[in-house]
Amino acid sequence: MLLGTIVCELIGLGFLVAGYFLAVKKATNLLTLLAGYDQRRVHDEEALARITGPVLMVIGAYLCLAPFLADRFGPDSAFLPLGGLIVLGVIFVNMYGRLKGIF
Question: Which domain holds residue 43?
Fold first, then answer.
């Protein structure tokens, strides 16, 4: 259980750091880490970084908390909402990006 907690914390910190660099520092070179990112289809890379960064930070924060929530409420109650959070984040980024003309 300790190894799983450490791995989950490290992945969560990675998401937090990537989200921070995208949202605050506007490090658009990190956009290449996104699955399906095609530079030719993106019209405004800075706007994409602004909306993707906070989503990654929320997912990273939840990943850091998930092992402790799993100990308290059980693994199903902790990790199933994480899947929903990821799906909602992807839908939000896609819908907002298409609405604002970023893609």
Answer: 2-99
